[in-house]
Specification:
This protein is of the alpha+beta class. The protein is built from 17 helices and seven strands. The strands form two sheets. A four-stranded antiparallel β-sheet has the order 1-2-3-4.
Length: 433
Amino acid sequence: MAEKITQKGFEKILREGLEKPHNLGDKLYLVIKGNSRDFSFRYTLHKKTRKYSLSPYHALTNTLSHARKRATELNFMLAQGLDPHKKRQLEIALTEKAEIQKQAQDANRENTFQKLAYETYEQKRSGWSNQKHNKQWIRSLEAYAFPIIGQLPITEVTTDHVLAILNPIWNEIPETADRVRGRIEAVITRADALGLRTDKNPAQWRGHLSGLLTSAAKVKEAKVPKEERHHPALPHEQLVQFMNTLSQSSGMGASALQVCILCATRTTETLKATWKEIDLDKALWVIPANRMKGKKEHKIPLSTQAVAKLRELEKLRISKYVFPNLSNGNHLSQAGMSSVLKRLNKNGEWQDKQGRNISAHGFRSTFRDYIADKTTFDGAMAEHALAHKIPDASVAAYHRTTMVEKRRIMMQTYADYALNTGAVRDNVTQISA
């Protein structure tokens, strides 16, 4: 075993600067090469000699004394059968792992639920045609989810957090609550796809929240009977009287409501109607697929009364829209018709069978009820008139066309009844499909 080099001996080695490994004792070496002065620890373990690099010599921060202290620690490790080199590799690995974990934690802190929610919203909104739904999607999360988990890292969102959001509203507004739940689930699903989470989605209904909450449908059913959940519709027995009252109202909104009722269209389909879609000579209104809820072109045969009303409006044409806002030429807003209905119903004269004030959309149900109750027209024809998907697959397969000309007779019958034109047809001869 080499004798320990004293401080004076060490200084001599430094002065002479002989390039070679200098044995300082206790397996400690000073390696001089060019301008470098590096300490190293050399040892033999399991018949294999290894070099363990220490820090370079420094007169203040890494002296011989510092190096000997480190050599003493390494010799103690060897005495315990530990390999200093492997321990260093383990320390490096642990340090790298800690750094990776820190980076992941920093990323998690940045990837909050709110951040992922806005990203999900931006990614999904391009596929939505309903602007009202578009805005409601993110606003519902802003109102109910963000106050509780908005600033929480997406990795930390748990079932308890989701329940804290849903429990206060689940029984009060079950439909909204279920939509919020679905939107939270969508945000966390995006986080899963991005590799930001590995845990089970805490907002998932099937197999998870279904065991903790009563289904929104059952809550809604218990809260409001099924027959009261549809848009309030005027009983068809009162339609003639209502249309007579409506005919005494002037303005673009009143005209739009009248055409909407006669054609049994949705309010947005009516309000955004353009003259390009309507052929008055052929008495046909063709709404393109991109304006329909079901994304399928819809042909509406126009009754003589509807054509007459549209010809009146054509004389006032100021833009491409059939029902323009006279101040700017754009189409009427939803308030265009609803304000007319509200004005006509200021004393609550027009209500559905449950005593609720009627809505413009409810007139589609008025039409459907009249066709079912007072005529013998094929039910599928009425569904086509409403642009509904035929629920019965066998019936749908049979009716491959939209039966425009046969529906023309049905729509004329309905208009004759609504406007009390000619004989009121309570018993209509069956039109074979």
